[in-house]
From TrEMBL:
Residues 1-22 form the signal peptide. This is Sugar phosphate transporter domain-containing protein. The keyword Transmembrane applies. GO terms for cellular component: membrane. Residues 10-296 form the Sugar phosphate transporter domain. It is found in: Membrane. It is a multi-pass membrane protein. The chain crosses the membrane at residues 38-60, 72-96, 102-122, 129-147, 153-173, 185-206, 236-257, 264-293. The keyword Mitochondrion does not apply. Pfam families: TPT. Keywords: Membrane, Signal, Transmembrane, Transmembrane helix.
Length: 351
C-alpha cells in the first residue's frame, strides 16, 4: 500500500513537473519575443527563487544549511552562483534566438559535456559503453542542426554555453552536497539569492534603463508584466518539483524522467508555438533523446559495478563530511541523498 502511494506521488510530481517545465518554456519564448531582454528575464527568475523559497522552506521545515567557512564559500558557492547566472542568461538567449524545440535538442548534449568535464576536472574515466552512447547524441544534434529551418548561430552557441555551464554546476553542486550535507533545496536558494545580488549592478548597467524605457514597461503592458511574473513563478516551481522527484527516485529513474520531460517540452512547444519543422529535424531530435537514454542506462550499469566494491569506500566517503551529524550506525543524518544518488548520472540543476 505504501509503495503504491509513493508511486502515485512520484507520478503526480512528474506530471506537474512536465506541465510546469513546458509551460515555462512556452511563456519564456513568448515573453522574449515581445520583451527581448534575456538578462532581465533571468533576474526575474532569480528574484522569484529568492523571494518564494525562504517562506516555503520554513513552512515545510526544510532543514537549515550548515555553516561554511569563508574559504569554502568563495571557492565553491560563489563560482556556482556565477555559473547559475551565466547558464540561465545564455539559456534565455538560445530560447530567444531559436525555437524551444531546437534549443532543448542542443541541450541534450549535456552528457557529452559531463563526460568531458568530469574527465578533465575530476579525472573520472568512463566505460567504453558510455563513450559509444554519446555517438547518437552527437549525431542527433548534428541532424537537427543541419535541418533546422530557423537556425541561428548565436542561438546555437548560447545553447551550447548554457549546457556546458549546467554540466559544470551539476559536477560541483554534487561535490558541495556531499561535503557539507546541505539540503538540496537550500543550495538552490543560496545560489539563486547570491546570483541575484552579485549581478544586480551588471543588470543596472546593461538592462535597467532600456527596460524602463521599453513600451511594455513604460505603458504598463499587463500582458508582458504578467508573462514575466508567470515565468518567474513557473521556473521556481519546476526547480522545486525536479528536486523533489530526484529525492524520491533512483538516479536512473530521474534521468529517464528528465529525458522524457525534454520530449514533452519539445512536443508541447511544437504544438503551441507552431514553429515549422521537417521530418529529418524530428528524427534528429528523437535520435539525440534516445542517445541520452542510452547514456543514462550505461551510466547506471557503471554505477552498479562501483557499488559492489568493498565497504571501505563508505569509510572514505564519510571522511568527506567533517561537520555532519552521525547516528549510532555512523550514517550522516544531514544527507538526504545516498552517495549513489549524487553521481554524475543525474542532473542536479534544471534547464
Amino acid at each position: 500500500m505504501v509503495q503504491k502511494r509513493n508511486t502515485f506521488l512520484i507520478l503526480i510530481l512528474c506530471i506537474l513537473w512536465y506541465i510546469c517545465s513546458s509551460t515555462n518554456n512556452v511563456i519564456g519564448k513568448l515573453v522574449l519575443s515581445e520583451f527581448p531582454y534575456p538578462m532581465t528575464v533571468t533576474m526575474v527568475q532569480l528574484l522569484s527563487i529568492t523571494v518564494y523559497s525562504g517562506p516555503f522552506f520554513n513552512l515545510f521545515n526544510i532543514r537549515k544549511y550548515s555553516d561554511m567557512n569563508w574559504r569554502y564559500y568563495f571557492t565553491f558557492i560563489v563560482p556556482l552562483a556565477f555559473g547559475k547566472f551565466l547558464s540561465s542568461v545564455t539559456s534565455h538567449f538560445s530560447i530567444w534566438k531559436v525555437p524551444v524545440s531546437y534549443a532543448h535538442t542542443v541541450k541534450a548534449t549535456m552528457p557529452l559535456f559531463t563526460v568531458v568535464l568530469s574527465r578533465v576536472i575530476m579525472k573520472e574515466k568512463q566505460t567504453t559503453t558510455i563513450y559509444f552512447s554519446l555517438l547518437p547524441i552527437i549525431a542527433g544534434v548534428l541532424i537537427a542542426t543541419l535541418t533546422e529551418i530557423s537556425f541561428d548561430m548565436i542561438g546555437l552557441i548560447s545553447a551550447l554555453i548554457s549546457t556546458c555551464g549546467f554540466s559544470l554546476q551539476n559536477i560541483f553542486s554534487k561535490k558541495v552536497l556531499k561535503e557539507t550535507g546541505i539540503h538540496h533545496l537550500r543550495l538552490l536558494h543560496i545560489l539563486g539569492r547570491l546570483a541575484l545580488f552579485l549581478f544586480i549592478p551588471l543588470w543596472i548597467y546593461y538592462d535597467m534603463f532600456s527596460v524602463l524605457s521599453h513600451t511594455a514597461i513604460a505603458n504598463l503592458d499587463y500582458r508582458v508584466i504578467s508573462l514575466l511574473f508567470a515565468d518567474g513563478v513557473l521556473n521556481w516551481l519546476q526547480n522545486i518539483l525536479a528536486f523533489s522527484v530526484l529525492s524520491l527516485v533512483t538516479p536512473l529513474t530521474y534521468a529517464v524522467a528528465s529525458a522524457s520531460k525534454r520530449i514533452f517540452v519539445i512536443a508541447i512547444s511544437l504544438f503551441v508555438l507552431g514553429n515549422p519543422v521537417t521530418w529529418m529535424n524530428i528524427v534528429g531530435m528523437l535520435t539525440a533523446i534516445i542517445g541520452v537514454l542510452c547514456y543514462n542506462r550505461a551510466k547506471y550499469f557503471q554505477r552498479s559495478q562501483k557499488t559492489s566494491l568493498p565497504s571501505y569506500v563508505n569509510d572514505q566517503y564519510q571522511k568527506l563530511i567533517p561537520n555532519g551529524t552521525h547516528n549510532q550506525n555512523g550514517i550522516n543524518q544531514n544527507l538526504l541523498f545516498k552517495p549513489s544518488n549524487l553521481s554524475s548520472g543525474s542532473s542536479m540543476l534544471v534547464m
